[in-house]
């Protein structure tokens, strides 16, 4: 069955986030030949419409308004409801990001529709669109369908491959004028913490440190390896609690959920709360001097040894391979 779907694009520092392209790919499957309409909000975002189309959207609707310069659930909800009103879609796909996790349930509840969050896969089975999502901290997967109302889904970053960019593809980019009522929250300032470079939740490679790194300086060999691999730094709560790094790097049940292609856990014991945030990574390498450490149970490759000896050797090897 063909469906018309919207995809809410996310803009960070003037560029579309990768999760937007993944959401378009998911929407293409879900639309089953129907139209996929990209949606962009901001102060000045129309220029990004062309790239949205090149990654698979059939056309793009923008709402440009200075009140949408920063994300607020209040402002975005007003804009999205106006687009839904204009387009009458059968569903909306979001990234499973801070924005998507905040906005999708709000609009779904408002429209009395269900929401399937943290989707890692989807397929058409007969007349039904079946979504797959992890449960019990990634120990099992459940399959869900929407039986009534609009389809709302948030897509976990790094799980559904984006379509190949087609530079020749063109599509209409139109703007919708929405009178955004006074916002109940106003963002005065955005203060960026710790993370420079690659965004942790979208990183293809993560080098994560635990209490075993022993100090803030102990993260240096992890950073060197991460730089060579073009990755991002993550951490266990143990490392954050010990003040070796910022909480924005925490991965796990009460931190970020990540699914990179490669996760290198250094001096992390593998507590269940940490595994909840990384066990769905595609390849897991663990470096720990305790051969009994729990992290080895989920690791594809385990190195029993001192991380301060192992990491420089790995970095040197990768430098040779990648230069
Ligand atoms: P430790 O358990 O102390 O492990 C350190 C490891 O480093 C050991 O295995 C040791 O053998 C190894 N090591 C030491 N020195 C070296 C060396 N030189 N070379 C190699 N290996 C070495 N934790 C999270 O990570 N994320 C969460 O989101 C999270 N949420 C939680 C929520 C709740 C409600 C609770 C109760 C706990 C949560 N925790 C979370 C904490 C979790 O239970 C663990 O305490 C924490 O993950 C331990 O961090 P760690 O592995 O870095 O430290």
From TrEMBL:
<keyword id="KW-0274">FAD</keyword>
<dbReference type="InterPro" id="IPR014731">
    <property type="entry name" value="ETF_asu_C"/>
</dbReference>
<dbReference type="Pfam" id="PF00766">
    <property type="entry name" value="ETF_alpha"/>
</dbReference>
<comment type="similarity">
    <text>Belongs to the ETF alpha-subunit/FixB family.</text>
</comment>
<feature type="domain" description="Electron transfer flavoprotein alpha/beta-subunit N-terminal">
    <location>
        <begin position="5"/>
        <end position="190"/>
    </location>
</feature>
<dbReference type="InterPro" id="IPR029035">
    <property type="entry name" value="DHS-like_NAD/FAD-binding_dom"/>
</dbReference>
<dbReference type="Pfam" id="PF01012">
    <property type="entry name" value="ETF"/>
</dbReference>
<keyword id="KW-0249">Electron transport</keyword>
<dbReference type="InterPro" id="IPR014729">
    <property type="entry name" value="Rossmann-like_a/b/a_fold"/>
</dbReference>
<dbReference type="InterPro" id="IPR014730">
    <property type="entry name" value="ETF_a/b_N"/>
</dbReference>
<keyword id="KW-0285">Flavoprotein</keyword>
<dbReference type="InterPro" id="IPR033947">
    <property type="entry name" value="ETF_alpha_N"/>
</dbReference>
<keyword id="KW-0813">Transport</keyword>
<dbReference type="InterPro" id="IPR018206">
    <property type="entry name" value="ETF_asu_C_CS"/>
</dbReference>
<dbReference type="InterPro" id="IPR001308">
    <property type="entry name" value="ETF_a/FixB"/>
</dbReference>
<protein>
    <submittedName>
        <fullName>Electron transfer flavoprotein alpha subunit</fullName>
    </submittedName>
</protein>
